TrEMBL record:
It holds the Pfam family ECH_1. GO terms for molecular function: catalytic activity. Gene3D superfamilies: 2-enoyl-CoA Hydratase, Chain A, domain 1. The lineage of its organism: Bacteria, Pseudomonadati, Pseudomonadota, Betaproteobacteria, Burkholderiales. GO terms for biological process: fatty acid beta-oxidation. Coiled coil: none annotated. It comes from the Bacteria. This is Enoyl-CoA hydratase/carnithine racemase.
Length: 249
């Protein structure tokens, strides 16, 4: 299988998959195509026998600079538990800047590793825009720290992010991917049904879902119908004046 244009995907024999946003010259900014490729890559991961996924950015300057302002994406597509649906663990490996939608991805991942020079930054209050999904940060880390990140638009370094509960491990610069892979390999030895059940219980019964997050989930569900074989069959049958033969996919 060929690599997507904007991603590097590595499937290891130990059940771990590494998905890297490969747009280093653009600080791994997420374009419209990149968001779709990430959604497709995680769908393929979910269907596969692989057990744990790590998401990282190429190079060390930035995990991602967020949405590509020259090619705005539907960011909900590449956010874990919103456009990305899998009950397998997802680990975020952050180096350098983690901005805007990148912070949302890190927030929504199950676990996060960051380098000492990592900076988490949500600048939208300074830009006059937001898609609102960042509101879920207040339900995942210390409330006042979340409000500081969102309202004051101040970068938070890795140590502060660790203290607030956004990051699980802070590692030396350049060591984020290996540390995340080590965590993933540990997880890959655990009982998959237990991991899936606990993740589902947390996502469905413990964490609060903001309005934008709920909207993203709804859009994903409607997208399944809009892109299905059945919708094409239904319209074909109508044009051909015959009974449709639906396959449920």
């Amino acid at each position: 299988m060929s690599q997507p244009e904007n991603l590097l995907i590595e499937n290891f024999d130990d059940g771990v998959t590494l998905i890297t946003i490969n747009r280093e010259k653009r600080r791994n900014a997420i374009s419209a195509q990149t968001a779709i490729e990430l959604q497709d890559a995680f769908a393929a991961f979910d269907r596969s026998p692989q057990r744990v996924a790590v998401i990282a950015g190429a190079g060390t300057a930035a995990f991602t600079a967020g949405a590509d302002v020259n090619d705005m994406p539907e960011l909900w597509r590449c956010v874990p538990s919103v456009g990305i649906t899998t009950e397998k663990p997802v680990i975020c490996a952050v180096s350098g800047w983690c901005v805007g939608g990148g912070l949302v991805i890190a927030m929504m991942a199950d676990l996060c590793v960051a380098t000492e020079d990592a900076k988490f930054f949500y600048p939208e209050a300074k830009l006059g825009l937001t898609q609102g999904m960042i509101a879920g940060l207040a339900g995942r880390i210390a409330h006042k720290v979340a409000m500081e990140i969102m309202l004051l638009a101040r970068p938070v370094d890795a140590r502060r992010a660790y203290q607030a509960g956004l990051v699980n491990e802070v590692v030396p610069n350049g060591g984020h991917v290996e540390a995340a892979l080590a965590m993933a390999r540990e997880l890959a030895t655990m009982a998959p049904l237990v991991l899936a059940t606990l993740k589902r219980f947390v996502n469905e019964g413990v964490l609060a879902h903001g309005p934008t997050e709920t909207l993203g989930r709804t859009r994903r569900q409607m997208d399944v119908i809009a892109q299905s074989e059945d919708i094409r069959e239904g319209f074909s049958a109508q044009r051909e004046k015959r009974a449709p033969r639906f396959a449920g996919r």
